[in-house]
Design goal:
By secondary structure, this protein is an all-alpha fold. Strands 1-2 form a two-stranded antiparallel sheet. The two termini are 22 Å apart. It has helices at 21-41, 48-70, 75-95, 100-103, 105-113, 117-134, 142-169, and strands spanning 9-11, 17-18.
């Protein structure tokens, strides 16, 4: 009996698989948790400007995620969306490091969307954002930059290892 592939469901018009609903919805859930934890719990630590920034950027990303979750979107459109939303994610993490939860979804998206140099760039960009989040967002002391560099390397190596494992488990599209 053939079981459906848990990482892929359905096909796009070009025959390429698109992610199942669970993979499309999970980043939206992480985004909602990030907004809830940041604004709901840490509201006293945030300025009104920060709260508006978080709600605005979070709203823009949520709109994008709802579109992705509502219907299949082609890989080229999702690739462009990844690069367009990346600075929004970085801005959220800069203001509120709790959005590292959402930034982690970038690693999964990179596996599903990119190959070659683009996958390295996507992994590196996501690693940089996650390192920024883990070290507390904004802050420019020399020790924090050294810590960020070490964490960046750790995130990047981990992303590359996870990618290898996923590629060995998930059948090729060709």
């Amino acid at each position: 009996m053939n079981r459906p592939d848990p990482l892929r469901a359905g096909r796009e018009p070009g025959g390429r698989p698109h992610p199942p609903t669970a993979v499309r919805v999970f980043p939206l859930v992480l985004l909602a948790v990030g907004v809830g934890l940041t604004v709901g719990i840490q509201e006293a630590d945030l300025s009104p400007r920060d709260v508006l920034l978080i709600l605005g950027l979070g709203g823009a990303l949520a709109t994008y995620r709802v579109v992705l979750a509502a219907r299949p979107v082609s890989v080229p459109v999702r690739q462009v969306g990844f690069w367009i939303t990346l600075p929004l994610v970085a801005a959220l993490v800069f203001v509120a490091p709790m959005f590292a939860l959402y930034a982690l979804a970038g690693f999964v998206e990179a596996v599903l969307l990119f190959a070659g140099l683009a996958e390295w760039l996507a992994d590196a960009a996501t690693s940089a954002i996650c390192a920024l989040a883990v070290t507390g967002g904004a802050g420019t002391t020399p020790s924090s930059w050294a810590t960020r560099a070490a964490l960046f390397a750790l995130f990047l190596v981990t992303a590359r290892l996870v990618r290898r494992v996923l590629r060995s488990v998930v059948p090729s599209d060709s």
